[in-house]
Specification:
Layout lengths: L2 E6 L5 E10 L4 H14 L11 E2 L4 E4 L9 E6 L14 E13 H8 L7 H21 L1 E3 L2 E11 L3 E13 L4 E13 L4 H8 L14 H11 L3 E4 L10 E2 L2 E6 L4 E3 L5 E3 H9 L9 E6 L2 E3 L4 E3 L11 H11 L3 H15 L5 H5 L2 E3 L9 E2 L5 E2 L8 E2 L19 E2 L2 E6 L7 H17 L3 E2 L6 E4 L5 H15 L10 E6 L5 H13 L2 E6 H4 L4 H14 L6 E2 L5 H4 L3 E9 L10 E8 L7 E8 L9 H16 L5 E7 L6 H19 L7 E7 L24 E3 L9 E6 L11 E8 L5 H11 L14 H19 L2 H11 L1 E4 L6 E2 L1 E4 L11 E4 L1
Parallel strand pairs: 23-25, 24-26, 24-27, 27-28, 30-33, 32-39, 33-34
Antiparallel strand pairs: 1-10, 1-19, 2-4, 2-6, 3-4, 5-6, 7-8, 8-9, 9-10, 11-12, 11-18, 13-16, 14-15, 16-17, 20-35, 21-22, 21-29, 30-31, 31-32, 32-38, 34-37, 35-36, 36-37, 40-41
Helix pairs in contact: 2-3, 10-14, 11-12, 12-19, 16-17
């Protein structure tokens, strides 16, 4: 485990907390420079030679009380700098220190020893220690939040960027100890290149000479977007110029065609000016110029990009692929890199830690873990292999195992998005025959074995194409079959932008499922690929691929239990106008395989689900009408909640589920178990012995850790449920906020793990329990629908209204449309339809 125990004299130590005010208010980078100058100037009179740590904003922490007056203030003047400060920035500042509190770490010590509750003093103490462990690192490396990065071992990727290896560290309370969680990270930076070379790399040219024909307007716009606001240095004045300049834009004309007027009124171009002024004949006058001020032009060959600037724009598909290759590390490699990061952190020689009396163990924490046994899968009774036990989290899908509940496919069509020479008709026909064979072998009744085939251009009208395919499927279906087409297979050369458009039109306008396939998969289709497609199609059409053998999940079998999954997704960074999307799904059987969904749009950036009462009510009614039973127990998995939001979720969302129950029947009060699912963390487990690892080198599926690094006394655990494919697997952290059913710990962990074998889209255990997974997919798919809708009226009205209904998604087996009576208060009085 990549966590280091932290030792200290907690019980005998106070930390002094001071409020820091720097005026005028400036950006964090300049704030840091002002503070460093203040510390140098007032090392003795303000600090008495003592080492303190500052978070770069408002908080200063000291191991002892400062010897200066309280409050203490003084003026600081920043001298002419090396050029990293804008000339327009202020140079004179006032720094004020005022004691805010004395943090008694005894409370934190008692908390991790399970002797006291978590308090505000504990929170402040953790914050102080978190600042402490990162302070020296922040002085030596480029830091981003809790990550620090080093150019050592950087790797160039497409488009003039490079990936830097980084390391993450954060302080975590554990059982009896404080831990530092250390992990690897990576991010992209601009390469520190001469600007003309950066031009070539960003445009995909082999060299600058490939651009001699000039830079096209679309390429200039690409350069302008990529380079705007980055820092550069100039190198044409004969000496080392330290001053930095900010790129304003890229000119639409080349250096030999970019003209301006000199002070004497003479008109000249940039190439001629540099030849006459500096004796510099430009080697690349055909390149556009860099504008650093309103009318200040520089040829790219005299500019150099300052190293260490993060690339914050969206990466291309190729850059993303390069990034994944860099970060995808086997467990052994990652463990070595984490150890290398700990050497760079060098806690043993950290004078700030010593000043505060802290010590950090140099080795990773060894944990006790359990491995839960895999469940036994059950398929159709007529299968040659009705029962099967997965090996290392996977099981085979073949003709020996027929779907537990296979559907009938009687009306469908195939659309090929490409020309004949790109995707030949013979290849498509062979693929369809083999797919039909696979579906029949798996138990599906395919009554239309030769679906209509049609072609369309990826740049054509997707709406009209899908409507035509829908109509042809109707016409080709057997006369006695009156129901609408069930499926449209879409074969495309690449995913591109067409897939989300297909999904939106098919699922919101036509009410038909789609299955997208890439051409390189169907040209030489493998039997296993067709079997996996059959698995997905059966699930989308409402079938059940497999269940778990009776007795595997007693929590679902011993009494009617509904499982909820909840998630909220938000628009991209900076978009505060588009509404957030809340999704909730609920199980519709005792197998834990079929689910229905409820979706709402709500106020932008609100994390709690605002209309949860209505959503839960819909799903409770659906469960009752589907099974004929009222849920006697509710188990809810909530995705996307951070620890700082636990209290708010406890207060609002659990109460909302209870209100949903009361609104159906006054006496209906089923016990609720509410579990938060956390995926965005940096805990990683490394098996000590290779014999205890799976074939990828990761811990075995079913690995459970519920001691040492978990909360000192609350109910949480980690499960690594999935087999590793590549890289280092990330366990999922489950935190139980409420358990009114008093479920046995082992039973709850076992059920959570076994649910991971019931994900309907693959034959592998997944990393997150499916209720949470499905809720996220429903919210994501709704977001894709929203992107294509008219934003002005839809987004504005839904944001103002707070909560707005949105049609339920059907891709998790059950489409639920609920029409509740306003006055009715019990299950029987609600009228609704389940498809």
């Amino acid at each position: 485990m990549s966590a280091l125990p932290m030792k200290s004299l907690f019980a005998d130590m106070d930390v002094f907390h001071y409020d820091v005010t720097i005026t005028p208010d400036v950006p964090p980078k300049l704030n840091k420079i002002v503070w460093e100058e203040f510390c140098i100037t007032h090392k003795e009179d303000a600090f008495g030679g003592m080492l303190t740590v500052y978070d770069g904003r408002k908080n200063l922490f000291a191991p002892k009380e400062l010897p200066c007056a309280d409050p203490y203030s003084d003026k600081i003047t920043i001298p002419e700098h090396d050029g990293s400060i804008n000339r327009k920035a202020p140079r004179e500042f006032t720094v004020k220190l005022k004691k805010a509190a004395i943090i008694n770490l005894e409370e934190l010590h008692r908390f991790i020893q399970k002797k006291a509750a978590f308090s505000g003093n504990c929170q402040t103490g953790i914050m102080a220690l978190d600042v402490l462990i990162g302070y020296k690192i922040g002085q030596e490396f480029i830091t981003v939040n809790r990550n620090f990065y080093t150019p050592h071992g950087a790797q160039s990727i497409n488009g003039g960027l490079e990936v830097w290896q980084g390391y993450y560290q954060s302080l975590r309370p554990g059982q009896g100890k404080m831990f530092i969680n250390v992990d690897t990270s990576a991010t992209t930076f601009y390469e520190g290149l001469p600007m003309h070379e950066a031009f070539a790399r960003m445009l995909g040219a082999r060299s600058v000479n490939d651009l001699r024909q000039g830079v096209q307007e679309r390429d200039r716009i690409k350069l302008d977007k990529a380079l705007k606001k980055i820092k550069i240095r100039v190198r044409h004045r004969g000496e080392a110029i330290k001053r930095q300049f900010t790129v304003f834009k890229i000119t639409p004309t080349s250096a030999d065609h970019t003209f301006f007027e000199l002070q004497d009124g003479t008109r000249t171009n940039v190439a001629d000016y540099f030849r006459s002024q500096y004796g510099l004949r430009l080697a690349y006058p055909f390149l556009p110029c860099v504008v650093i001020q309103k009318d200040s032009y520089l040829p790219p060959e005299v500019c150099e990009i300052v190293q260490g600037q993060r690339y914050l724009k969206k990466m291309s598909d190729r850059q993303t692929a390069d990034m994944i290759k860099f970060t995808c590390q086997s467990p052994d490699t990652r463990a070595i890199k984490v150890a290398d990061g700990m050497k760079k952190l060098n806690y043993a020689e950290n004078e700030y830690l010593r000043q505060f009396g802290m010590k950090v163990q140099s080795e990773m924490q060894i944990l006790d873990a359990r491995i839960l046994p895999p469940p036994t899968m059950q398929f159709h009774p007529q299968s040659r292999e009705e029962f099967s036990t997965p090996m290392e989290g996977t099981w085979t899908i073949d003709s020996r195992k027929r779907f537990f509940n296979a559907v009938e496919l009687s009306s469908w069509a195939v659309v090929v998005w490409g020309q004949e020479q790109e995707i030949p008709a013979r290849a498509v026909e062979m693929f369809v025959r083999q797919l039909v064979q696979a579906m029949v072998e798996m138990g599906m009744n395919v009554t239309m074995q030769q679906p209509p085939l049609m072609r369309s251009s990826p740049q054509g009208n997707v709406d009209d194409t899908l409507k035509t395919a829908w109509t042809k499927a109707c016409q080709c279906a057997r006369e006695e079959i009156s129901k609408a087409p069930q499926l449209i297979i879409c074969i495309m050369p690449n995913i591109g932008r067409i897939k989300p458009v297909i999904k939106r039109i098919a699922e919101t306008k036509l009410g038909v499922m789609t299955q997208c396939c890439l051409k390189n998969k169907i040209m030489l289709p493998k039997r296993q690929y067709n079997q996996m497609l059959a698995l997905k199609i059966n699930t989308k059409l409402g079938g059940i691929n497999n269940i778990l053998r009776s007795g595997e999940m007693p929590l679902l079998e011993e009494k009617p239990t509904i499982i909820f999954g909840c998630d909220v997704t938000h628009a991209g960074p900076g978009d505060n106008r588009r509404p957030s999307i809340a999704a909730m799904i609920g199980s519709m059987d005792s197998y834990g395989f079929r689910y229905a969904s409820a979706i709402r749009l709500q106020q932008s950036r609100v994390e709690t689900i605002q209309d949860l009462t209505s959503m839960a009510k819909e799903l409770l009614i659906a469960y009752y009408r589907k099974t004929g039973k009222k849920p006697a127990r509710i188990i809810a998995f909530r995705d996307g909640v951070s620890e700082g939001q636990f209290a708010e979720v406890m207060k609002t969302e659990i109460d909302a589920i209870k209100r949903a129950c009361y609104s159906l029947e006054e006496s209906y009060r089923p016990p609720i178990t509410f579990i938060v699912v956390q995926k965005r963390h940096h805990a990683r487990f490394f098996p000590i012995n290779r014999s205890e690892a799976d074939r990828s080198g990761n811990c075995m599926p079913g690995t459970v850790v519920d001691a040492t690094i978990v909360h000192p006394y609350e109910y949480d655990f980690y499960i690594q449920s999935h087999p590793g494919l590549q890289g280092t697997s990330r366990p999922t952290h489950y935190h139980v906020l409420l358990d009114e059913s008093k479920i046995d710990v082992d039973k709850l962990q076992d059920m959570t793990y076994k649910l991971c074998y019931l994900y309907g889209r693959c034959s592998r255990a997944v990393s997150v329990c499916p209720p949470s997974y499905y809720a996220h997919l429903v919210a994501y798919r709704t977001g894709e629908y929203m992107k294509a809708l008219d934003e002005s009226e839809s987004a504005t009205s839904s944001s103002e209204a707070g909560s707005t209904d949105f049609s339920s998604s059907s891709f998790v087996n059950v489409t639920v449309k609920v029409y509740p009576s306003a006055d009715s208060r019990n299950f029987q009085d609600h009228v609704f339809h389940v498809k």
